[in-house]
Specification:
This protein is α/β, with parallel strands linked by helices. It contains 18 helices and 16 strands. The strands form 4 sheets. A 6-stranded parallel sheet has the order 5-6-4-1-7-8, with helices on both faces. It has a 5-stranded parallel sheet with strand order 11-10-9-15-16, sandwiched between helices. Helix 6 packs across helix 7, helix 9 runs parallel beside helix 14 and helix 12 packs parallel to helix 13. It binds adenosine-5'-triphosphate and 3-phosphoglyceric acid. The site of adenosine-5'-triphosphate has 29 residues, from strand 14, helix 14 and helix 16.
C-alpha cells in the first residue's frame, strides 16, 4: 500500500498548497503552554517552503461553536510559527473571507500564511454534508493542492479534512508519514521481545488494542485501573477498585487467548490499596490476590501497582526490543500513587530498541513528577511518538481492514473510513480515575486549570460529556471519540494534558532524547 506522499504532488513551485495541520495547542492566558504541535508541523512546512510552494496553513484550535471567538484565535500560533521557521508568517483574520483571500494572493513563492481557526466557520464541523462541502469549496478556492498533516484530526469527518481532500490533489505530510511509520513498526515485524504495557482507566478503550496486538506481542503487562478487571476475571476480589463488570467475559477471553498463543500475560502480584480516592489517603501494599484483606477491607481502592510488580514490569520492559506503553500504572496524579508509573517510564528510557508511549494523559507529564528521577541511562535511547489507545486502535482496525492508508489519512478517493464507523472511538461514560483524580485535585485547590484549546488544561478537562463532544464536533455521538492523537513533539509525545510542570517533566526526558525515535525513512506501504 503506497501512501500518497508529498512527492506525488509533483513540482510545487509557485503552487498554493493548503496544509491541514493540527495546531491545537494548549494556551494559557493567550500564551502557548506547549508548542510541540507547532514544532511537529515544521518538517512538512519547511519541505514545502524549500520546494517554493506558497504555503497556506490551516488548523482548528479548541472547540469554538462555529463562529469567531478570540480566545481560540490562531494568531499566537502564527507568531510562534514565524519564530520557529525564522521567517515572517502572515496571519489572515478570517479563514476564507476577504482577509484570507488577500493574504493568500499576497504570498510569494516559499512564503507562509496562517488562516484563522477553521472552526470559526460552522461549515467545518457541520453535521450536514452539504454545509461541509460548501465550506470545503471555499477553502479549495484558496489553494491548488492539499497536504494533510494533522494526525490528531485525520479521523474527523470535517470539511478541511475530508471534503477538501476530495476537491484538491492531496497527499499526506511528513508528520503523518512518520507517525504511520512508527505505528507500522509496532505491527509489522517488530523486533523481539515485543512488550505491550497497558494501564489507565479505560479498559474498554484498550481492549481493541489488546485484541489486535495479542497475535503479535510476546508479553502483555497490565497495570492501572484496568488491572482490576483482569484480576476479577481471574476470580480475585478487588474491593472498591475500578472494575468494568461488563468487560469481564471479554477479558477472560483475552486471558485464554494469551495463554493459547503463548503470550506472557503479566499481571501485578502486589497492589497499593488506599482508604479512599484522594492524594493523602492512607494506603498499604498487599498481594494482588488479597486486596480485600487490606486494612481497608471492602472499601479499599487499588491505586497503584506495588513495588514488586513495578520491578517485574521494569525488568520485562528493559529486556524488550520493542515496547508500546499506553496508560499509567496508577493514579499518577497523586504522588503517593505514582511509583509504578515512574518505574515503567524509567525502564522505557532504558530500552535498547523502539519504545512508544501513547495516551491522552501521557504519564510522563504528571504534575507530581520529579523529572530528575527519570533520565536516560543509555546511549541508544528508546523512541517514541504517542497516540491515544483509541487512535492506535483505529489504526490497527484500519490495518486489518482492506482500506487504504490514503483513506486512513483522509486523502480519500473512495468512501471515508468514518462512513464505515471504523475510525471513531466507541462512546464511553466520562468516568475513570482521571476524572476522579482531576476532581480531587481541583477540590484541594492544588492545581488550577483552564481548558483553552485542545491541548489545554489537563486531560480530564477535555473529556466533555459525550453529547457535548459530539455536538461540538458536528458528529454523531455514537461515533464521537474522546480526543487523542499522535500529536507530536520532536515527532513524538502527544501532550494533551500539559501544564507547566508536566511540560517540564516531558521536556527533561525529550532533552535527554530518552524517548526519541530513531529516524525512520518512510517506507513503501
Ligand atoms: N488504579 C487506578 N484506579 C483509578 N484510576 C486509575 C488507576 N490507575 C490509573 N488510573 C487513572 O487512569 C487515568 C488515565 O487513564 P486513560 O485510560 O485515560 O489513559 P490514557 O493513556 O490517557 O488513555 P488514552 O490512550 O485513551 O489516551 C489517569 O488519570 C489515572 O489517574
Ligand atoms: O487534540 C486533538 O485530539 C485534536 O486536535 C483533535 O481535536 P478535537 O478532539 O477537538 O477534534
Amino acid at each position: 500500500m503506497t501512501l500518497r506522499t508529498l512527492d506525488t504532488l509533483g513540482s510545487l513551485e509557485g503552487k498554493r498548497v493548503i496544509v491541514r495541520c493540527d495546531l491545537n495547542v494548549p494556551l494559557r492566558d493567550g500564551v502557548i503552554a506547549d508548542d510541540g504541535r507547532v514544532r511537529a508541523s515544521l518538517p512538512t512546512l519547511n519541505a514545502l517552503i524549500n520546494a517554493g510552494a506558497r504555503v497556506i496553513v490551516c488548523s482548528h484550535l479548541g472547540r469554538p461553536n462555529g463562529s469567531p471567538d478570540p480566545q481560540y484565535s490562531l494568531e499566537p500560533v502564527a507568531q510562534r510559527l514565524s519564530e520557529l521557521l525564522g521567517k515572517p508568517v502572515a496571519f489572515a483574520r478570517d479563514t476564507v473571507g476577504e482577509s484570507a483571500q488577500h493574504a493568500v494572493a499576497a504570498i510569494e513563492d516559499g512564503g507562509v500564511v496562517v488562516l484563522e481557526n477553521l472552526r470559526f466557520n460552522a461549515g467545518e464541523t457541520a453535521k450536514d454534508d452539504a454545509a461541509r462541502k460548501s465550506f470545503a469549496a471555499e477553502l479549495a478556492a484558496l489553494g491548488d493542492a492539499l497536504v494533510s498533516d494533522g494526525f490528531g484530526v485525520v479521523h474527523r469527518k470535517q470539511a478541511s479534512v475530508y471534503e477538501l481532500a476530495q476537491l484538491l490533489p492531496s497527499a499526506a505530510g511528513l508528520l503523518i508519514a512518520t507517525e504511520l511509520d512508527v505505528l507500522d513498526r509496532l505491527t509489522e515485524n517488530p523486533e523481539r521481545p515485543y512488550t505491550v504495557v497497558l494501564g489507565g482507566s479505560k479498559v474498554s478503550d484498550k481492549l481493541g488494542v489488546i485484541s489486535h496486538l495479542l497475535p503479535r506481542v510476546d508479553r502483555l503487562l497490565v497495570g492501572g485501573g484496568m488491572l482490576f478487571t483482569f484480576l476479577a476475571a481471574e476470580g480475585h476480589a478487588v474491593a472498591s477498585s475500578l472494575l468494568e463488570q461488563d468487560q469481564l467475559d471479554t477479558v477472560r477471553g483475552y486471558i485464554a487467548d494469551a495463554r493459547e498463543r503463548g503470550v506472557e500475560l503479566v499481571l501485578p502480584t502486589d497492589v497499593v490499596v488506599a482508604s479512599g480516592f484522594s492524594a493523602d489517603a492512607s494506603h498499604e501494599t498487599v498481594a494482588a490476590d488479597a486486596i480485600e484483606q487490606s486494612a481497608f477491607g471492602a472499601s479499599g481502592i487499588g491505586l497503584d501497582i506495588g513495588p514488586d510488580s513495578a520491578a517485574r514490569f521494569a525488568e520485562a520492559i528493559r529486556d524488550s526490543k520493542t515496547v508500546f506503553w499506553n496508560g499509567p500504572m496508577g493514579v499518577f496524579e497523586f504522588p503517593a500513587f505514582a511509583s509504578g508509573t515512574k518505574a515503567v517510564a524509567q525502564a522505557l528510557t532504558e530500552v535498547d530498541g523502539l519504545g512508544v508511549v501513547g495516551g491522552e494523559t501521557p504519564p510522563l507529564q504528571c504534575a507530581s513528577w520529579d523529572s530528575r528521577t527519570i533520565s536516560s541511562g543509555t546511549s541508544r535511547p528508546a523512541a517514541v511518538p504517542a497516540s491515544s489507545s483509541s487512535r492506535v486502535r483505529s489504526y490497527l482496525d484500519w490495518r486489518s481492514s482492506d482500506g487504504s492508508l490514503n483513506e486512513f489519512v483522509c486523502c480519500a478517493e473512495q468512501a471515508h473510513p468514518a462512513d464505515r464507523g471504523e475510525l471513531e472511538d466507541e462512546p464511553r461514560p466520562p468516568a475513570g480515575g482521571g476524572d476522579r483524580a482531576e476532581a480531587a485535585l481541583d477540590a484541594e485547590g492544588r492545581r488550577s486549570r483552564q481548558r483553552i484549546g485542545g491541548g489545554g488544561g489537563v486531560p480530564a478537562v477535555h473529556r466533555h460529556p459525550l453529547g457535548a463532544d459530539a455536538d461540538r464536533c458536528g458528529q454523531d455521538p455514537v461515533r464521537t471519540r474522546l480526543a487523542g492523537c499522535l500529536g507530536a513533539r520532536f515527532g513524538c509525545i502527544h501532550r494533551r494534558g500539559v501544564g507547566s510542570l508536566p511540560r517540564e517533566a516531558g521536556r527533561a526526558i525529550c532533552d535527554h532524547r530518552a524517548l526519541r525515535a530513531p529516524r525512520v525513512p518512510p517506507r513503501e506501504r
